[in-house]
Amino acid sequence: PYEVLIVGGGPAGASAAIYSARKGIRTGVIAQRFGGQIMDTVAIENFISVSATEGPKLVANLEQHVMDYDVDVMKAQKAVALRQSNGADGKRVEVTLENGATLISKSIILATGARWREMNVPGEQEYRGKGVAYCPHCDGPLFKGKRVAVIGGGNSGIEAAIDLAGIVEHVTVLEFADTLRADDVLQRKARSMNNIDIITAAMSTEVLGDGQRVTGLNYTDRATGEEKTVALAGVFVQIGLVPNTDWLKGVVELNPRGEIMVDSRGETSIPGVFAAGDVTDSAYKQIIISMGSGATAALSAFDHLIRLPAQ
Ligand code: FAD
Q1: Which residues does the record give as FAD binding sites (predicted)?
Q2: Which ligand 1 atom is nearest residue 279's CA?
Q3: Can you name the residues that pair with 207 across neighbouring β-strands?
């Protein structure tokens, strides 16, 4: 069996793999898509000590760094089930893959990440990274002095609007429902800023562009049925970040958002099962934070292993 089996090959999983392998323990990584969300990222300017890079370039560096060590990387494999079992010398965790294989390990690190909920309107995919953005901390500064929209009037949408309003020229918030769901304190703050407009009962219908970049957004005013267009350079979609935990429901403890609950050592509700990165209930979801929590989970897994009874 493996000593540490990591599910996920994004920054959290890669960091956990390097930290585990450096302890000389038998390490495996299962990754549906190595690199995770970074593969979809165009410009990265907040990976500290690297002024600017691109997603695929950072993924290549990550993979090279993992490959410097003796790690079994199983790419294009999807984990579909996790369960505890008893080995001859103590507890084991089994991970079943979609292809039917079962892998056994003494400890597990769950790093399956998350995905942004999409609007599913024409133009969204075409202009992804060309004006359509999902992360204000990441891409906000790219829109300095420009006009943008934020889709979604929940806490993350209004937080994004307040954040962006300090950088960009103007922010239009579009919310599908008749009222905002964000906390009052955030709504008050947003309404007090003179470069934020809030439009409720607005159904976004299309991202417009000139073939190169976003130029506007169409929406339907749900009260009147009227079609409207806003001219802008960026659309920040803030309608939810969904953790990849469908296969873990009822297995490890999740919070109401479906994120894996971890303690300060990255341990889940099952001893010997750790989690890291965007899949956890961490407050912020960023590359550097995922890597830090991957390192924490790996060190905690090692700590767990050295306490297991000798074989
Ligand atoms: P992920 O990157 O989501 O990786 C999850 C891994 O798990 C993948 O390998 C996936 O294939 C695998 N996986 C999932 N389910 C299974 C399964 N069942 N079995 C096996 N494998 C599975 N952050 C920044 O810091 N700076 C930025 O500029 C930035 N820009 C971004 C731009 C975009 C468009 C997006 C989408 C995100 C951006 N982020 C940015 C956020 C950053 O990418 C994430 O915080 C980070 O990738 C999270 O890392 P992770 O390893 O936890 O998860």
Answers
A1: 3-18, 268-278
A2: 52
A3: 217
